[in-house]
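Can you please make up a protein's amino acid sequence together with its fold in token form to help me picture the idea?
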Amino acid sequence: MKAKQTRLLLVLTACLSAPLFATAASSPVNRITVNQGAIKIEAYEQGTGKTIVILPSLGRGAQDYDDVAGYLAQEGFRVLRPEPRGVNGSQGPLNNLTLHDFAADVALLMDHENTGPAVVVGHAWGSQPARVLAVDRPDLVKGVVMAAASVGKFPPGYSEKPYGRMVEAITGSGNYALPEAQRLKYLQQAFFAPGNDPHPWLTGWYEATHKAEAQARDATPVDLYWSAGSSVPILDLQGSNDAVVIPNILKSMLGDRVEARTLAGAGHAMAPERPREMAQAIAEFAKRVYADTAVPGQVKGG
């Protein structure tokens, strides 16, 4: 009798502990590789349903979004996370690139996977190829999420230089030659809100990719892509404690195309700080964008 009562108590406890928003660990992850000439793109896929593509921040990879992708999969989405060139299994030339090259890598994966128009999430630097993709391949972009992302330009009256904040701290955070204590200081300054642990980002930096991505940004005129074209809806997802991004710029420039939303307690890193809340904001936006739209065919490409 006592054993039965114990088992009943465990069942009840498990039921009461079930989260309102799905846990991140319950969706299997598949690895996809796409090749074209000298270019090889590795990506992670999980979930079923309408597609959300996540592009990582400067010098970092897709695994930063393990939890975010898991939550999105549990919300009924298929999530694709391509690695940039130079990260894990992704390979390709890293010299003399523009953002068009990085956007084409994403398009290569999406065409291979027959996603059709999808919601594309760009975290920080990742918002730049996401927006270029919306210009170069509007057939692949249903909506754009700019997560902790700078616009790249300012309305009239601003004297500050785009991408000019926290440059030393951003660069130093991924410099493995520096003492760990100094790197933690930089990570806290640039990426993590007060009280959030910066240790998870001591690893996961890719110097060659960082350099290539920064050079590609500098080589691509921002006026060609900053607005992600002229029609797709945009979620400007901001962290309340983001030390890098100047908030509320995009909506003042693009008006009703932009929905601005702020995540409390998140800095520029956002994903390791508030993965559940980040996923929830993306999911709610994607559901609105996809409303009354059929799921694209998901037969694998050749």
